[in-house]
Amino acid sequence: MKKVIYSEQAPPAIGPYSQAILAGNTLYVSGQIALDIAPLNDVAAETKKVLENLGHILAAAEMNYENVVKASIFLKNMDDFATVNEVYGSFFTTNPPARETVQVAKLPRDVNVEISVIAVK
Prior knowledge:
The chain is an alpha+beta fold. It is built from two helices and six strands, in the order βββαβαββ.
């Protein structure tokens, strides 16, 4: 059984997908971007907003950052890794999840960072 999870506090999906899907006790959160801030010239602010959006979606599933077991970070420029890592670390202060960080050629809406997570109750 799967259940669509949606938070009005996070930006709506920009395509044919759900913000998140709860399957059993596992939550799969689609990649989030900072649609709701502009201009996109401050990677720290953009990363903070992305993580806040993820938090809203987690809360809609009655979870929080401590439930996250896996994160995937996609960067437009790997030179932003240290900045993104610092902001990310402020949200995952104890027992951080497994993760990967990769540089990609382009992200939706020309953002600098996109993050998706998997969480478990």
